[in-house]
Amino acid sequence: MAEQNENVQEKELTQQELSEQILIRRDKLAQLQAEGKNPFEIVKFDMTHHSDEIKDGFDALEGKDVAIAGRLMSKRIMGKASFCNLQDRNGTIQSYVSRNDIGDEDYAAFKKFDIGDIIGIKGFVFRTKTGETSVHAKEVTLLSKSLQVLPEKFHGLKDQELRYRQRYMDLIVNPEVRDTFIKRSKIISEIRRFLDGKGFLEVETPVLQTIPGGASARPFITHHNTLDIDMYCRIALELPLKRLIVGGFERVYEIGRVFRNEGISVRHNPEFTLMELYQAYTDYNGMMDITEEMFRTVAQNVLGGTKVQYGGHDLDLGQPFARKTMVSLVKEYTGIDFDAVENTEEAKALAKERHVEFEERHVKGDILLLFFEEFVEKNLVQPTFVIDYPVEVSPLTKRKPENPDYTERFELFIIGREYANAYSELNDPIDQRGRFEYQEMLREAGDDEANMIDEDFLTALEYGMPPTGGLGVGIDRFVMLLTEAVSIRDVILFPTMKPLDK
């Protein structure tokens, strides 16, 4: 049976359009295996240093033995001696390999190594006549054979689609890509450090939910076979976290993946990382304070300063963020004062006059938001808290006591993009039920992004939730801002891609 499987595999290989170089690499591997030198049978290599440690610590390491390992990125054969560059996780380092030092047989084997092979080198640290820190090899070991040919640096990596599909290859050839994802990890670590320092407790809540809630978005649907029920991949973290506030946790947060069955663009990926926090006994003003401090602190600790350049704009997260109402911003950019608009009919007439598309179900608050999105959003370059959203588009938010048509909600905009969304959380179970019922009506009218009624959450509110502020931050967009990434795909290791056979 094993022999039959082997023949099938061989048949599949011969059907592939393998290049001549790939076939040569496979022949080299077969020869090594025939000689009892199969590199894939090596189980470990004891590294002592990475490339940057040797370069930075040259004065202490000169003349001392080290062991390095990584990918062979270049090789210059010069008769009885050669130079090669090895790439590890922290950078590259040169090695000098001589036949007199490693022996005729091993040197002959080294000359057959291919670019992309994983190798280990043991030797001592020195500097060449040109002053380059290097490792003088005493032993060279092939640790893994590369059967694919790395793309040419300046010609094979212009295909963005290929880079996203084969991120492993992108990471090998483009050091700046690795730097982006190292910075992403540091950003998330700094967010955790900041929140932990404020007394927040990190928790985990279910990804699979029986009712998707906490946002207006179309969910992904799956089916649980044992329970024989449909379930949803979460679209937000909000409702479980607010249940914990009811239960007595006064400060909680979660950083996790959420899923929204929506379009893909430079700003949107169906699977993305969201941070949400909830703090009892504060409101959206407290959330503005913590958001501004967090953005400033993370930038300072990751970038070494609060000044950021993005898309040709100079931003300074160290400066106070502007705070403006949605109504005042729409008036500033359109001349229309929605506080003076008396009803939905008048709002729709203004929309027609300004060529703002709306749906028949939309009411005055919806149309105010449409005006904001059409005329204002793109102009908000410097960090701006847009506050006091209409109640119709904020189903989980506490109303403003002095003006119940609006809510204590803000979104943070920078360079025309939303980076955070926060509320004074609605804790009135009777008002919340009415908001859910309104959302359910929208859902029945065809809005599949509207909220469903979550009876258990309403029960939780009936037990009593203290006044609470809540905040959500899109981690991917925040990373884009601090790394000057153009597309969200540039900061997600494995973005959602359409299969090639489709």
From TrEMBL:
Catalytic reaction annotation = tRNA(Lys) + L-lysine + ATP = L-lysyl-tRNA(Lys) + AMP + diphosphate
EC nos = 6.1.1.6
Q: How is the cofactor bound?
A: Binds 3 Mg(2+) ions per subunit.
User: Which is an annotated Pfam family here?
Assistant: tRNA-synt_2
| Cofactor(s) required for function per UniProt | Mg(2+)
Residue intervals of the Aminoacyl-transfer RNA synthetases class-II family profile domain: 184-499
Binding locations of Mg(2+) 2 = E418
**Keyword Repressor in annotation:** no
A GO CC term? cytosol
Q: Which PROSITE patterns match?
A: AA_TRNA_LIGASE_II
GO molecular function ontology, one term from the record: lysine-tRNA ligase activity
Q: Coiled-coil ranges per the record?
A: none
Domain of life (superkingdom): Bacteria
SUPFAM superfamilies in the record: Class II aaRS and biotin synthetases, Nucleic acid-binding proteins
Q: Which InterPro entries match?
A: Aa-tRNA-synt_II, aa-tRNA-synth_II, aa-tRNA-synth_II/BPL/LPL, Lys-tRNA-ligase_II, Lys-tRNA-ligase_II_bac/euk, Lys-tRNA-ligase_II_N, Lys-tRNA-synth_II_C, NA-bd_OB-fold
* Keywords from the UniProt entry: Aminoacyl-tRNA synthetase, ATP-binding, Cytoplasm, Ligase, Magnesium, Metal-binding, Nucleotide-binding, Protein biosynthesis
The family database entries (PANTHER family) matched by this protein are listed as: LYSINE--TRNA LIGASE, CHLOROPLASTIC_MITOCHONDRIAL, LYSYL-TRNA SYNTHETASE
Return the similarity comment: Belongs to the class-II aminoacyl-tRNA synthetase family.
- Subunit arrangement? Homodimer.
Q: What is this protein called?
A: Lysine--tRNA ligase
Record organism: Anaerotignum neopropionicum
> Which gene name does the record give?
lysS_1
